[in-house]
Amino acid sequence: MISPPSFAGESTTISAIGTLISSGNPHGDNPRSRSRLIPLLSSFADVNGNRFSQSVDLQDIFRRFSFDSICRFSFGLDPGCLSLSLPVSEFALAFDLASKLSAERAISTSPLVWKIKRFFNLGSEKKLKEAIKSVHELAEGVIRHKRENGVVSSSHEDLLSRFMATINDDVFLRDIVISFLLAGRDTVSSGLTSFFWLLSENPRVVRLIREESDRVMGRENEKPVEFSQLREMHYLQAAVHESMRLFPPVQFDSKFCEEDDVLPDGTFVARGTRVTYHPYAMGRMERIWGEDCLEFKPERWLQNGVFKQVNPFKYPVFQAGPRVCLGKEMAVVEMKTVALSLIRRFDIQVSGSGQGPKFAPGLTATVRGGLPVFVRERME
Ligand code: HEM
């Protein structure tokens, strides 16, 4: 039986994430090539620290971060997408294309259209087939690399090694690699991207997060946050949850009914029916969240200053019931650690903000055109 992704323990997760945020050179290679989140954003921040200068696509940076992070955590590999040169990862590109084309299938007017294209190997279906082939080859490469480097039997530190120690089926292992990339990469970067858009519109929330973290960690403390400190930051926890209420990374999700069934409210669902739950719509329903449902208000999650979790069926951002997200805790810890390290260090302003983000079709919410921001060293 494989343990869920939090097997390494939250404090281990934090230290692995911390390496990606600020470290130079974990393997003794060229420090420039291993620059991470803070050095990368510093390179875009205004040198005098007193005005905003060039803009950078924060969504792209977060996608690179979460790709490096999930590869390290799940496969013990480091693709180095956060290097200062912002290298293009073949794996990430093929993966993005396959996700985009799969999502476009779901919104096509009739499944007949893509089925005909697939049959004749035409247009988007031809491209999808090629992208899937690349993803498969690259995922198989990850497994081969681990076998050749002999890390499987000695190290169980990453998830893939754990699977490889007990499972010999290469197709199964390949699908594990792909599932974890899909589940853990774009979701976290999407959550962070929307959070920074909301923060840019709500400086009051930034101020309160800073005040809370200064109280817990000390104003001048530049060390990475510790897990015990993170647990004390109820306002930050509330702000991250509130952000995903309004902008859930998985905006909607469908299931197909295997047998005739009846929903708890008495609705009959025939076998084969597609049933969709919609966290994006639910997060904006007055009936569920009250009259102020469209406001970004972390306080709604606090009772006497303490974060209060809500029923996952009211807030199905991570699904609910037996198929709830296995990486939920890790994802929230990752988001809080990254957000905090940037909020404490930089002032980040979305360029041309005012309009809400517009999303591109995809399996996870992706802002069309990215999230251009200006960065400067923190002023207050
Ligand atoms: C903010 C970040 C995340 C969000 C919003 C999120 C959301 C979700 C949702 C909605 C599902 C259900 C999908 C479905 O039933 O079709 C799911 C499943 C899953 N997630 Fe996450 N996820 C996040 C991050 C992660 C991370 C970082 C990992 C791994 C390290 C992960 C691993 C998984 C796995 C393995 C499943 C499948 C569980 C199963 O089917 O039993 N997730 N996630």
TrEMBL record:
Lineage of producing organism: Eukaryota, Viridiplantae, Streptophyta, Embryophyta, Tracheophyta
Membrane topology: Single-pass membrane protein
Record family assignment: Belongs to the cytochrome P450 family.
Required co-factors: heme
Gene3D superfamilies, A to Z: Cytochrome P450
Alphabetical UniProt keywords: Iron, Metal-binding, Oxidoreductase
CDD domains with a match to the protein in the record: CYP86A
Compartments (UniProt record): Membrane
Predominant localisation class: membrane
Pfam families: p450
InterPro entries, A to Z: Cyt_P450 (IPR001128), Cyt_P450_E_grp-I (IPR002401), Cyt_P450_sf (IPR036396)
Annotated organism of origin: Rehmannia glutinosa (Chinese foxglove)
Protein name: Cytochrome P450 protein
Domain of life: Eukaryota
